[in-house]
Amino acid sequence: MTHTFLMEAGRWTLQGNWLERNSLPIVVKGKTLVGWSRDNWFTMVTKLVFPGSETEEVSLQYRGRLALGDRQYTFVLQHSQLGRVEGEGWVAQDSIVQRYWVLGDRQQRRSGFETLYRVNENTYHLTSGMMAGHFLISTMEAVLERQPD
To answer: Hey, which of 9, 30, 88, 108 would disulfide with 14, CB 3.0 to 4.6 Å?
Structure first.
């Protein structure tokens, strides 16, 4: 199965639910832009908003490199809630899996993960979670849809 998310430049919308410890799920909506340079570097910018909620928006700015033919990549991320983050990703047959950790965060040991499962070339299902130490502090499940150019 050929991936379109992350592997190709494009615009995506996101709709789903965000859940934090001891809270009810809240609606999350967002947009993601993916871009590629000629030397196999990608950028991905995501903005998440929470309509009807007092939860602050979340912004994420990724930069990573995935050489042609590789199935694993590394990235750096500037996260509005977590700060400077590093991570790795694996491109599997039907999904893209990312794991990341917050730099210089020895006290809380925050980290996270994302799985993007390909439904079809224009749709992915996203599940993600953020952790502090061994405890899950938030999760998100959403559908990403590619927007026409």
So the answer is: 30
| pLDDT over 90 (residue 70) | no
The Cα 81–Cα 120 span in angstroms is 31
52 located within any domain: yes
Number of domains comprising the chain: 1
pLDDT value, residue 60: 96
What residue numbers bound the domain in which 21 lies?
10-147
Q: What's the full length of the chain, in residues?
A: 149
| Closest alpha carbon to 15 in 126, 97, 132, 139 | 126
Token duo for residue 3: 């991936």
Q: What is the CA radius of gyration of the chain?
A: 15
User: pTM of the predicted model, to two decimals?
Assistant: 0.92
Q: What is the pLDDT of residue 1?
A: 52
Determine the Cα–Cα distance for residues 126 and 13; give it in Å rounded to an integer: 12
CATH number, domain of 132, equals: 2.40.128.20
Instruction: State how far the Cα of 110 lies from the Cα of 126, in Å rounded to an integer.
Output: 20
